[in-house]
Amino acid sequence: xxxxxxxxxxxxxxxxxxxxxxxxxxxxxxxxxxxxxxxxxxxxxxxxxxxxxxxxxxxxxxxxxxxxxxxxxxxxxxxxxxxxxxxxxxxxxxxxxxxxxxxxxxxxxxxxxxxxxxxxxxxxxxxxxxxxxxxxxxxxxxxxxxxxxxxxxxxxxxxxxxxxxxxxxxxxxxxxxxxxxxxxxxxxxxxxxxxxxxxxxxxxxxxxxxxx
Length: 212
Description:
This protein is an alpha+beta fold and 212 residues long. It contains seven helices and seven strands, in the order H-H-E-H-E-E-H-E-E-H-H-E-E-H.
């Protein structure tokens, strides 16, 4: 591409195509670097900016989102951060975003929110919440009870049925929890996953290897 750009025999339209190819190559390289981040994790927990992580994950799915004309509504609090394993948190968000996209019809709406909060129970731990909501057809009540079981899937001939089970185990390992709300009614349909992660995770340099 560099040599093509140096050529004197290209007209303006051809140069435009070369520039487009260079931009696309840069985008693919950026996606590759982000994807490698899912697997190249540090040995010990670090501070993870959840909003930045969510934005990075969403950027990986932008081509699918745009191709299906899905409306994306996001609200990211830049101050939302927790102590944890960045690669595992990315994987959890990625699993839920991918599921939400699969559940949506063309032109549907995907909502993602990340914000600081306290846990909604007697503990009231300080932490952050990640909400991923889709306006899809919803999950029937009889399937919701099995959704986090290994090898259970609502997608015929697609997937392993391990994504949500693995996601729940990763969230639990960080001392958090994941909840599901879904409706299949004619008036209001869709699914909402809510993840709470405490600011001070159960993982630390002393017990990480034992927990994992």
